[in-house]
Amino acid sequence: MISCNIQTISYTDCILTIQDSGGITINEFMLANLKMFQNDTMGTLYLNDGSTEITINLAQLPSINGGVFTTLLDLFTYIETQRNLCQCGCGGGGSGTVTSVDLTMPSAFSVSGNPITTAGTLAVTGAGLVSQYIRGDGSLANFPTGGGGGASQPYYLNGGTNQGVFVGNTYYEMSKTPVIGVGADFTIAADGIIARFLTDAGDPGLLNIPAGNWNFEMWFSASSSGGSPTFSVTLYKYDGASFTSIATSSATPENITGGTSIDLYFTALAVPATILTATDRLAISVDIVHSGRTITLHTQNSHLCQINTTFSTGISALNGLTDSVQSFAVGTTGADFNIASSLAVHNFNLPTASATNRGALSSANWTTFNNKILTVLNSMTVGTIAASTTTYILPESNIASATESARTYYLNNACTAARYLVATSTAQSATGSLVVTFRNSAASTSITVTIAAGSAAGRVTDYVNTASCLVDSGISHQVVNNATATSANIAQISINLK
Fold first, then answer.
1. Is the pLDDT of residue 133 over 80?
2. Do the beta carbons of residue 466 and residue 429 sit within 8 Å?
3. What are the two backbone dihedrals, phi and then psi, of residue 79, each rounded to the nearest 5 degrees?
């Protein structure tokens, strides 16, 4: 058994070579014949090919291959991997020592688990969003978006419908409805505009063009092959007096390459967000560089020239508004709930309720309303009052006392006291009156009821006078029997607070 100062373990052509710190080969093992045994208790790895055995212990690992093996299992896995490669014929041509494996990917991917220096797994995941796609160069890109909900609104170039002469030039129809049944062609044998197209009056009837690509599908042919004929398009808005250019592809024309064949060509026009009026119309001009040939633009029937715009085919109008992007807002305008729609905004107006407005209750008015909740304080079966006596009754109680503070009811809200009622079940003595007064903060108010001497049983009220009571005011009923005999029997004393 050999155990010595091992510095390097490498393999070449299915041979495992072990060298000491001086570069001297200690032993060479044929990987196909090599057997390994790891003794975790002793912290030892044994290598044996049937004739020679080498022992490697844990303490030696820091000096082997620059310290890349931190455990005996790391070293075991390294040698086992090389032996498996040798046995399957996968590593016969390799040489040298592999101590690290890494992986790089294009920017559209993320790599984790790298580098692998012993054993592990390299994981590759997408680095983008579900709304993105991967380009051919491995980078991420966003899918193009339209300007509104629903599909893109297409327009067709109907070359058989003459719209008339505008600002000195003849325009043909640009419409949402294609003409099928007969073709209409335009030819030019020079550089310049081959045809112009204009939407119908009131079309598109929108207040803006959403930003984005307008994609043109155009049919062309040439009188012969060769050369470098091209076409480009320009978009305008027309206000009834003049044409204003919105966007043009003249800097990036498309080649017409099919010669005499009638072929479909595509070009994209980057259109900025553009403000329109409701009466603005849209126009297209098609420019040709003829390159010594006669160029034909084919429209209608089986050669529908189509423009896919950033207008939406979703809701065409909402409360009279036709913008593809609309929003909602809230307001208080008006005397009743209403929806006011203007430009691209729908205002939901809920006015503040008042004597003239039907609407929402304001916070201040709610507080006022809440404080007007009616409370009725009833003192029932008070009984009789002794002759020539002044006593005090606690509201909502029938207990009397000669001391007012002992029969005082304190308020936790400001209120107005009104509608005083006193009911008796027997007659008042003929020797004097019975006077009941509402008291506030130890002072008599104008609210009072007098039961005259000799009055029969019944009800006496004061529905005229009122009294304002503050928060924490103390209220009570004062009862004065001016008779020289016991008073009438008091069945009820009632006061309303609101």
1. no
2. no
3. -70, -40
DSSP 8-state secondary structure symbol assigned to residue 57: E
- What sections of 23-161 are H helices per DSSP? 72-88
Contact 203, 279 (CB under 8 A): no
Side-chain-side CA neighbours of 343 within 13 Å: the count stands at 8
Is the pLDDT assigned to residue 290 strictly greater than 90?
yes
**What is the value of pTM for the model shown?**
0.43
In a domain, 369, yes or no: no
Q: Are residues 408 and 349 in the same domain?
A: no
HSE of 355, CA atoms in CB hemisphere, 13 A: 0
Domain total in the chain:
4
Domain containing residue 380: 375-497
List CB contacts of 164: < 8 A, sequence separation 6 or more: 170, 171
CA dihedral angle for residue 23, residue 25, residue 30, residue 31, rounded to 10 degrees: -30
Compute how many other C-beta atoms are within 10 angstroms of the C-beta atom of residue 23. Answer: 8
Query: 105 and 124 in contact (C-beta within 8 Å)?
Result: yes
**Digit-coded pLDDT (tens) for 387-427:** 999 999 988 888 889 999 888 999 888 889 999 999 999 99
- Confirm whether 277 is domain-assigned: yes
What distance in Å separates the CA atoms of residue 441 and residue 443, rounded to the nearest whole number? 5
Q: Which of 348-357, 374-383, 485-494 has the lowest mean pLDDT?
A: 374-383
Residues 379 and 479 in one domain: yes
